Amino acid sequence: MNLAEFPTAWDHPPTRRAWTLHMSLNIAGLVGWVGGWIALLGISTETPNWVVWVFMPYFIYGFYRAYVQLRYFPAALRMRRIMRTFPWQVRNDAPHGLADYPGVVGPQHGWFEFPNPADPAQQLPLVFTQHFRLNWWTRRLAPRAKPQLKAQIETIWFAGDPRMIGIIAAPTPNGRAPRRFQVLDQGLGKGDGSRLTEWGVTPEDLERGRRAGVTPNL
Q1: Cβ contacts of residue 25 below 8 Å, gap of 6+?
Q2: By C-alpha distance, which of 156, 141, 151 is closest to 96?
Q3: pTM for this predicted structure
């Protein structure tokens, strides 16, 4: 299945299945943690006080896990908006790093560079601004990562516009579907309309950016 055949990443059936599976697992996790927390709360009302103290770590951790599961929903919906706007591109040996990228405004937890659509000779960074569920990527971006780990991000799938926003994924071993979705944000031109103009952003590009969930201004 050739990715170039699909006008957007969301039109690619394995992508939709992968995203739906992620959402299903997240919903199941949320129900499991909340249900377990409520069940133990009910049990604790019918048992001696020492039982409550035994299960206190779970009460605390279960509440935290439910919060983590809830946080995934906005991120997943944001991913879907990007994938409904931009097509997948296969990128081999995209420059990347874990250290802070010079000039980026705001938090960053690793970065990839992609060519500017208006000037392919110019490389622009997109950064991870959230460390949520990022451990898989940071382990492979680390300078001292083992070769077998680094090899897993030699080829990545990218959908987006590096002047504004994007999403990356690692292909499955058979190369037919994406996994490990993560959103990347543009940190160099954040809130800087003159920088976007310098990068050749057109009104059509801005409209695609808005459909993907960003609000750039020229």
Answers
A1: none
A2: 141
A3: 0.85
Greatest alpha-carbon pair distance for the chain in Å reads 70
Digit-coded pLDDT (tens) for 158-187: 999 999 999 999 999 988 999 999 999 998
Rounded-to-integer distance, Cα 123 and Cα 108, Å: 18
- From residue 8, alpha-carbon distances to 16, 31, 62 in Å are 11, 32, 38
Residue 155 is which amino acid? T
Is residue 149 predicted with pLDDT exceeding 90? Answer: yes
pLDDT tens, residue by residue, 195-216: 888 899 999 999 999 999 887 6
Enumerate residues 6+ apart whose C-beta is below 8 A from 5.
Answer: none
* Residue 106, burial from CB neighbour count under 10 angstroms (0-12, 13-18, 19+): exposed
